[in-house]
Amino acid sequence: MVEEPSPEAVSQFVERFAGALANAGVPTMAARVMGAMMVSPNGTMTAAELADMLKISQPAVSGAVRQLLQVSFISRERLRGSRKDHYRIREDVFAAMLERRNLALTEWEAASRSGAALFADDSPVCRRLTEAADFFAFIHADMDQIIKNWRAENPR
């Protein structure tokens, strides 16, 4: 049986996880809140608990939570008998996030194709924009299949 990790080890993990997300473009405070939510035993925390765990201010938590609500990483709920908002990490959260990100590829493809249509087929600009559109379509199709495969192997 594995022993419970120390608070220091958990904190180090949260910061390492947040750093990896921040390096990929996730805002730092939102990444730290994501890390904290990932290690929450029941997947739910209040703003006060997040602020205490991460040693950050309530306004910092508020901004991070707002960002995470917008991308559907977490949901807000009220537990019976509580006046406080509780934030719950979504089930299937990373597949759902990639699914949303994947939708952007469709927009990038369409924008690239509309740009390519402005130029002669043999122009360098048309070739470059067509290549970009083809790439976005290719990645979109593969990512869509990857998400379907993940969900088939890991039903909720």
Which helices and strands occur, and which strands form pairs?
Elements (H helix, E strand, L loop, with lengths): L6 H17 L4 H11 L5 E3 H8 L3 H13 L3 E5 L6 E5 L3 H24 L7 H30 L3
Antiparallel strand pairs: 1-3, 2-3
How much strand content do the residues show? Answer: 5-15%
Strand order of the largest sheet: 1-3-2
Distance between the termini: 26 Å
Number of helices, counting only DSSP H or I runs of 4 residues or more:
6
Rounded mean pLDDT is 93
Shape: elongated
Secondary-structure element series: HHEHHEEHH
Write down the Rg: 20 Å
Major sheet: 3 strands, antiparallel
Category from helices, strands and their pairing:
mainly alpha
Helix content: 55-70%
Task: Give the uncertain stretches in residue-range form.
Answer: none
Give a count of the beta strands, DSSP E runs of length 2 or more. 3
